[in-house]
Amino acid sequence: MLLLTKKMSELNHNKIIIIGAGLTGLCTGCYLQMKGFSTEIYELHNLPGGLCTSWHRKGYTFDGCIHWLVGSGPGDNFNNLWNELIDMKKVKFVDFDYYLKAEDLKGNSFKLFADVDKLEEELLRFSPEDKIPIKEFCKSAKKFSKLNMPIEKAPELYNILDGLKIMFKMLPYSFLFSKWRKISQNEFASRFKNPLLRLAFSMSEFEDMGATFNLFRQSWMHKKSAGYPIGGSLEFSRLFEKKYTELGGKIFYKCKVEKINVENHKATGIKLETGEEIKGDLVVSAADGFSTIYKMLEGKYVGKEQEKWYSTGITFPSLVQVSFGINKDFSSEPHSVIYPVSKPIKLDSKSVYNHILLRIFNFDATMSPPGKTVMYAFFATPEYKYWTDLRKNNLTLYRTEKNRIAGEVLEAVEERFGKLNPYVEEIDVATPATIIRYTNNWKGSYEGWLFVKGLGFINLKRTLPGLENFYMAGQWIEVGGGLPGCILSARNLSQIIEKKFKN
């Protein structure tokens, strides 16, 4: 442990309170413990991970987060970042040969291969009339695969030399990035003449998602740095919980923070829902941004930036996830498949789908008993209020609606895989109300701020105007969300706190 300097000893108890044991909170705790600070984490749920989670149902595990993890493979700066806290060599990753198979009702299909050269060959085979956008996408993805993001230091700590180094490193990619950031993923998808290609490349539920999202995903998969961790999301989160407690950190579960206590415009601790108050020298919120600013702090410390983002910023939507535990082997089927359905699937008044995207866990034996399979479909919806109000005001109808949706989804699955109803042993439907109950995430969003077209890689301020001894971290600070943003936000904040209180 590092020894405290006089500057740090000015803090009476040398205790930092962290709100939230999601991945950001756990990583923040780890980094601060490693730098010699004493920390405590307070979490409303009884499990670590926040949105990075899984849940168990009668021998089946249904996963709610990781599809692919940036930094899973060596040679990438995000891999170096993960390795600062856990040994990534001990995590078994699956690098998929392809990440999606697209099919139509006529039996035509193609695969979105991870390798860019294989992808280009496959897409040109399937739709030679789309040669121009295919080659444009593949050429750009291959170039971006050579980029190793400069993430060694918090941007707030850059000096002139750091800025120049990063500028020269990014210079070969600046034109390409400037070009792609101007269009949305759906705008790019509309360039394809083939309807199945348009479906596979579009993100209809994310109208404003920047085209750079798919481009960077492809580039990371190409260099085998976007794999899936065997065991799923909760087990991945538990690695950081274990690291944190080994470093001496303390986690208090089922402790919902109601208020951040402030005296003379300095954060002095927290008040729990039970009424208990805990004092601390610094408070870090790795929890929901809206609840932090407008509820825990009662909206008393809102600057122009926060006002702008929380009034006009676009968030990732919420989700309805329908999961099945099936007493049948699907090892010969694609692990991820998208196809149009003959009967629309209706979630709510604003969310009707004419296609289905299925994830089949035939690649992770830990998710189901031998010979059985977990399969799930997920659908974005902006109607978080409808779902939360329905659950609150009419629980019977809420459950009826969940059953209806599960039935429609099963019909759509059977359209492709044949009669499955006799084999289905477990059904689970998670709604926006589920996400809000377990994570308190604003609007039931599953990743915070959406990476929309026109944006670069940016973060919001980690402090609030007029409030001292308080910081924020996580997906409401790092625009674009995702697990890499969690650990990056945590590492950057720890560097800032260390510089302020130890130098």
Summarize the structure.
The chain has 503 residues and is α/β, with parallel strands linked by helices.
Can you tell me about this structure?
Helices cover 37% and strands 22% of the residues. The longest helix has 23 residues, at 395-417. It folds into 3 domains: 6-58 and 233-314 and 451-502, FAD/NAD(P)-binding domain (3-Layer(bba) Sandwich), CATH 3.50.50.60; 96-223, no CATH class; 317-439, Guanine Nucleotide Dissociation Inhibitor, domain 2, CATH 3.30.519. The chain is of the alpha/beta class and 503 residues long. The chain has a 7-stranded mixed β-sheet. A 5-stranded parallel β-sheet has the order 10-2-1-14-20, with helices on one face. Helix 2 (23-34) links the parallel strand 1 (15-19) and strand 2.
Blueprint of the fold:
Blueprint (H helix, E strand, L loop, with lengths): L5 H4 L5 E5 L3 H12 L3 E5 L11 E4 L2 E4 L5 E2 L6 H7 L9 E2 L3 E6 L5 E5 L2 H11 L4 H14 L15 H21 L4 H5 L5 H7 L10 H11 L3 E4 L2 H15 L3 E3 L4 E7 L2 E7 L4 E3 L2 E4 L3 H8 L7 H9 L5 E9 L9 E13 L2 E10 L12 E9 L2 H10 L1 H23 L6 E7 L1 H8 L30 E3 L10 H20 L1
Parallel strand pairs: 1-2, 1-14, 2-10, 7-16, 14-20
Antiparallel strand pairs: 3-4, 5-9, 6-9, 7-8, 11-12, 12-13, 15-18, 15-19, 16-17, 17-18
